[in-house]
C-alpha cells in the first residue's frame, strides 16, 4: 500500500508539473458553459446572421433545462472525448520513451500498481474537471432557463464519471501498447467512435455497452425513465475497467524492460 500511495503521489506531482491540473478544469468549464449560453442566444445569433426576408419572423422553441444539460453531455461526448484522449495518451508511452518507465520497473514495483495509480490519478483529475464544468453549466442553465432536479443531475454526473474512467483505462491500455502518441490518439478515437456507432445500431444486443453510460446519463437528466439495462451496463463497465487496467499491466510487464 505504501508503494501504491507513493506511485499515486508521483502521478499527481506529474499532473501538476505538466499544468494539467490547471488547464483541464478550465477547458472543461469553458466547454460546458458554452452550451447553455449559445442555446439561450441562438435565436439572436441566427437573426444577426441575416438571410431572412424582410419582415419575416423567426422563432425557436425554448429548450427545457433538462435538454440543455443533456446537450452539454452530448458536446462533452465529442469534444470532451478528444480532450481526454489528448490528456491521457502519453501516460505510459512518454515514460517509456524518456526511460523513466525502465527505472521504475527495475525496482520492486508491481506493474498493476503502476497502471492503477496512473488510471486513478488521471481519472480523478478528469472527473473533477468534468464535475466543475457540469456544475458551471448547471448554474448558467438555472440562471438563463430553469432549474434541473438535483437528484437527476447527480445521477447523470455519477454515470458520466464512470464513463470517464472507462475512457481513461482504455486510452492507458493503448498508451501501453504503442509508443507513438499519434497512433494512440487515432486508435482510441476509432475505437470509441466505432463502439458508439455499433452500440447505437445494436441497441438491444449491446445495451450493456459502457458507451451507453453517457446515453443513460442523457436520459436521466432529461427526466426520461427508460433506463432498462442500466444495472447491467454499470456492472459490465466496472468489469471492463478492471480488465483494461489488468491488460495494460500485463503489457507494461512485457514491454517495460
Describe this structure in words.
The protein is mostly helical and 257 residues long. It has 10 helices and no strands. The protein has helices at residues 2-17, 20-49, 65-88, 93-98, 100-105, 111-144, 150-177, 181-201, 212-221, 230-255. Helix 2 packs across helix 3, helix 3 runs antiparallel to helix 9 (212-221) and helix 6 packs across helix 10. The radius of gyration is 20 Å and the shape is globular. The relative contact order is 0.14. The model has no long low-confidence stretch (mean pLDDT 85).
Question: Topology of this protein?
Answer:
Blueprint: H1 2-17, H2 20-49, H3 65-88, H4 93-98, H5 100-105, H6 111-144, H7 150-177, H8 181-201, H9 212-221, H10 230-255
Helix pairs in contact: 1-6, 2-3, 2-6, 3-6, 3-7, 3-8, 3-9, 6-7, 6-10, 7-8, 7-9, 7-10
Q: Distance N terminus to C terminus?
A: 23 Å
Estimate the mean pLDDT confidence. Answer: 85
Shape: globular
Query: Which series of helices and strands comes N to C?
Result: HHHHHHHHHH
Alpha-beta content class: mainly alpha
Strand tally? 0
Number of helices: 10
State the share of residues found in helices, binned by percent: over 70%
Any low-confidence stretches, pLDDT <50, length ≥5? none
Rg is 20 Å
The biggest sheet, with number of strands, parallel, antiparallel or mixed sense and barrel status, is: none
Beta-strand content: under 5%
